[in-house]
Amino acid sequence: MLYSLSRPLLFALDPETAHEVALAGLDAAAASGIARLIAPRVRSSPIDAMGLKFPNRVGLAAGLDKNAAHIDGLATLGFGFIECGTVTPRPQPGNPRPRLFRLSQANALINRLGFNNEGIERFIANVQRARFGPKNGNVLGLNIGRNFDTPNARAIDDYRACLKAVYVHASYVTVNISSPNTAGLRALQEPGALKPLLSGLKAEQAKLAQKHGKYTPLVVKISPDLESTDLAMIARSLIAHGIDGVIATNTTIDRSMLKGSELAQEAGGLSGRPLTERSTSVIRALAAKLDGAIPIIGAGGIMSVADAKAKIDAGATLVQVYTGLIYRGPHLVAEIADALASVPGT
Ligand SMILES: Cc1cc2nc3c(=O)[nH]c(=O)nc-3n(C[C@H](O)[C@H](O)[C@H](O)COP(=O)(O)O)c2cc1C
Predict the structure, then answer these.
(1) What is the pTM of this model?
(2) Do the Cβ atoms of 235 and 290 come closer than 8 Å?
(3) To test the ligand 1 pocket, which listed residue (102, 143, 181, 250) has its Cβ within 8 A of the most ligand atoms?
(4) Which pLDDT does position 1 carry in this prediction?
(5) What does the pLDDT read at residue 37?
(6) 61 CA distance to ligand 1 centroid (A)?
(7) Pairwise CA distance, residues 231 & 226, whole Å
């Protein structure tokens, strides 16, 4: 109801301003207690994955709350888990505006934000301030990346620094090597770069687990633009290195599914409806290769209950949404969580 009233106003604003206004509104509603009164009641349907207990299968995908500054507001929408970031060690402004585009006819977004964020220190301070998180039994994923000016040869230093900082505060940590908006980042998915990165991070995770007496799962987030042979190699690497889970997928640089849209040629990652089928087929191929070894978190163009079910049918254990929230509104979370509650657990 509130969303249908505010949507025309939000869509009249440029997308990045609309984003800020919507999150400020959500924070105010959460702080004043209004959010709790109007919050959807989501059916509890606990599911175990990666040694964590998720109250339902629907999560918030990374990138909506890059600085972890709106966790408690977002938590009122009924998510089974929330992922914040991508955060980099040092603050960075990202690319010049405009860098976020609404392709309304196509129910899609193109973004080339470029990991705009306030850096790891502010991020951790925000996470610590939030009520929602592992300290209160909630599942909070923290998504880490490298600064735009750190070369891939030294990327491990950035990921390691972020992993150390987020480790105790996270339910799981996502290693983002699939954003198209940081030059060269996706090359970290290639075997020569992936193997040393994963073994370095697993070694650090082992040290941190020892030090803190707590095991925080490591998850890798992959691109939808991988060839089948790349996918097979990645699946083998994830298993060989003992990675705990995989998120499929990030946004695509492909535009073949966007005919006739005047913004189609904007550079960046495409999300929403045009990505639905492609990310589902990546999940299906990945599931065949992983054969149940580690769970898949399915993301990419989930705009409806049917889209979420298709991801689960393809082999995902959990799902995440982002662009669907913009086009369908926050009630999508409860709608999907309730529908998936009747799907038998793994
Ligand atoms: C504006 C925007 C910013 C994003 N930023 C990030 C990010 O910082 N890190 C990340 O791992 N994914 C990021 N993503 C990708 C989403 O987490 C998700 O994987 C992708 O958009 C596909 O899901 P969707 O079609 O439901 O949006 C971003 C997506 C959008 C639309």
Answers:
(1) 0.98
(2) yes
(3) 250
(4) 58
(5) 76
(6) 6
(7) 6
6 catalytic residue (yes or no): no
Find the CATH number of the domain harbouring 142: 3.20.20.70
Catalytic residue, from 178, 179, 223, 261: name it.
179
Question: At 83, phi and psi to the nearest 5?
Answer: -115, 125
Q: Is residue 346 part of a domain?
A: no
Tokens 């996470």, residue located? 127
Question: Distance between CA atoms of 129 and 68, rounded to whole angstroms?
Answer: 10
Low-confidence ranges of the chain (pLDDT < 50): none
CA distance 263 to 255: 10
Q: How far is the CA of 85 from the centre of ligand 1 (A)?
A: 10
CA distance linking residue 308 with residue 320, whole number of Å: 9
How many domains is the chain partitioned into structurally?
Answer: 1
| Residue 30: per-residue pLDDT | 87
Whole-number pLDDT of residue 345:
65
For ligand 1, atom 15, the nearest C-alpha belongs to: 250
